[in-house]
Design goal:
Elements lengths: L14 H16 L4 H16 L3 E8 L2 E9 L5 H9 L3 E2 L2 E8 L2 E9 L6 H51 L3 E6 L4 E4 L12 H4 L4 H4 L5 H14 L3 E7 L6 E10 L8 E8 L1 H53 L6 H28 L7 E3 L1 H12 L3 H4 L2 E6 L6 E4 L1 H19 L4 E8 L7 E7 L6 H4 L19 H11 L3 E7 L3 E8 L5
Parallel strand pairs: 12-14
Antiparallel strand pairs: 1-2, 1-5, 3-4, 4-5, 6-7, 6-10, 8-9, 9-10, 11-13, 14-15, 15-17, 16-17
Length: 519
């Protein structure tokens, strides 16, 4: 039902006036103005044409009608507008015209007047409503599109930042270059360390400008090979740039933006020093286990002929003594030979006994052990050692050192004694030995004892061999090469480990790390 219309003309209303208002509204929508401005001016033109107190545009929202634009006093309430719509256009002093867009109610055009509307007034309102509908529909679609674009942009930005966060959180150095060798990505790990370079300083520059410590031709050849073959390249390199010698695994991965040739190369650098040392320790343990098995197999076979030789030597000695008592002249060299045989048999037996200890360590009872007490007991036993008495001893024992809950003090004394004797030999008996205990960084390495000497040091090539049985750097006849191997086995039996740091010409540090948790 249309708004109430009277056929009595109003002295202030006429068809030309309504047409003028309609023309003004059309001009506003054709003008190059923002939609909000055009709607506000169009409502004002309608209000003036109808001498209305208010002309407003209400739009449907999730919770009802909302006055969006208004010209005049804007006193109409939502309930009054809803009542006028329910009355098909008029209620009290309000007249409403529905704004329809795409077969649905977009809102309502509302005017508040003191008089009945003429036919041309109603026509004006319907015409304006029809003009508003496509403008509002277009604006709604534009806003929806803007919302979708903004949401998609925000999603892409979140995905990009998430990807960057993943790359930055990786514990490896990563960067990406294009075919012009220019850096396109540079993760956070590449910014840290002594060779770290800030991302802003790296991006856009050629990799040769940034990694100038590496030979230009070698670096370019590596990248060119990946670009040409499309195959992953992996190799290891050693560097002393951080002060210590570290081992790095470098991996170059081809990257394609489409189905075409390789467009970028991803380079990943990972510090594998600890992993490599762990592999070496594992290989060392396997080697020691194999040698131990071999030693256990031949031990008894060696013992039998040694016992026979010793018995024969004793028998010859007794026979010579009997002959000497009967007046037979015996040369002194014969007694010397027998003594040599007995000494060498004894030395062989000691080696066999050490092999026995190495191949099948004694499963001794374990109880809580204070490493400081172990150090003091070892020093008490060493005080009569000729070479050790000439050494300058520095003792640094941490007072509140954690207790090793499962250990054997006698075996640990044996380990420290072997390390001290080696340190004494390395210095020639005239250097400094530092004995230090301290708390470790984790419960698995909770108690640490270190033996540091100022001796001749150990060459890097020999460090991986010093725990092998029979390997020794001492002069022939002065060592069996089993001391450190036995120490290694004892510490392993305590679920600990031995580390060694050495610089040729400056000395060595042997470090025993033991757990302070039950196992």
């Amino acid at each position: 039902m249309d708004p109430i219309v009277t056929d009595q003309p109003s002295p202030t209303s006429s068809a030309p006036r309504a047409l003028d208002a309609l023309a003004a509204v059309i001009a506003e929508f054709n003008a190059d103005r923002p939609l909000e401005t055009s709607i506000a001016l169009a409502l004002e033109a309608v209000r003036r044409s109808l001498d209305a107190h208010e002309c407003s545009l209400w739009l449907h929202a999730a919770d009802g009608l909302v006055r969006t634009w208004a010209a005049g006093e804007a006193l109409a309430s939502e309930s009054a507008v809803q009542a006028a719509l329910a009355a098909d256009g008029a209620a009290s002093d309000l007249c409403t015209v529905r704004v329809l867009g795409a077969n649905r109610h977009v809102g309502a055009l509302v005017v508040r007047v003191d008089r009945p509307l003429l036919a041309e007034d109603t026509t004006l309102l319907h015409a304006v409503a029809n003009l508003l509908a496509p403008e509002l529909a277009h604006a709604e679609r534009s806003r929806q599109l803007e919302v979708e674009v903004a949401a998609r942009t925000a999603e892409i930005d979140r995905e990009r930042r998430f990807t960057e966060k993943i790359i930055d959180s990786m514990p490896v150095g990563l960067y990406v270059i294009d075919r012009q060798y220019r850096i396109q990505a540079w993760n956070r790990k590449r910014e840290t360390g002594m060779q770290g370079i800030a991302r802003d300083e790296a991006l856009g520059r050629t990799i040769f400008d940034v990694l100038h410590r590496q030979p230009f031709e070698m670096l370019r050849r590596e990248f060119d090979e990946v670009f040409a073959t499309g195959r992953i390249q992996e190799y290891q390199m050693e560097s002393t740039a951080s002060g210590d010698q570290r081992t790095y695994r470098i991996t170059k991965v081809p990257m394609r933006l489409g189905d075409s040739a390789v467009t970028h190369v991803i380079t990943i650098g990972e510090d594998v020093t600890d992993w490599r040392e762990g592999q070496q320790r594992y290989a060392q343990a396997e080697k020691l286990a194999a040698i131990g098995t071999l030693a256990a197999g031949v031990m008894h076979e060696i013992n039998n002929p040694l016992a026979t030789i010793a018995a024969c030597g004793d028998g010859l000695g007794y026979r010579l003594e009997d002959l000497q008592r009967k007046g037979v002249e015996i040369g002194k060299d014969l007694f010397d030979y027998i003594e040599i045989v007995e000494n060498e048999v004894l030395r062989c037996k000691q080696i066999v006994d050490q092999l026995l200890d190495f191949s099948r360590p004694k499963q001794l009872a374990k109880s809580p052990v204070d490493l400081n007490e172990v150090v003091e007991k070892m020093l008490f036993l060493m005080k009569h050692h000729g070479g050790f008495k000439k050494m300058n001893l520095v003792k640094e024992l941490e007072p509140n050192l954690p207790v090793v809950p499962r250990g054997n003090a006698e075996q640990l004394v044996q380990v420290l004694m072997a390390l001290i004797i080696n340190a004494t030999d390395a210095t020639g008996g005239h250097g400094t030995i530092t004995l230090r205990t301290r708390t470790g960084p984790t419960p698995t390495d909770g108690a640490i004892v270190e033996v540091t000497d100022t001796g001749h040091g150990i060459a890097r090539a020999e460090l991986s061999k010093i725990f092998e049985p029979f390997y020794t750097t001492k002069a022939p006849g002065t060592g069996t090469g089993l001391g450190l191997a036995i120490c290694y086995g004892i510490v392993q039996d305590h679920r600990g480990r031995i580390e060694v740091d050495s610089v040729v010409g400056k000395g060595s540090t042997f470090r025993v790390l033991l757990p302070t948790v039950e196992w």
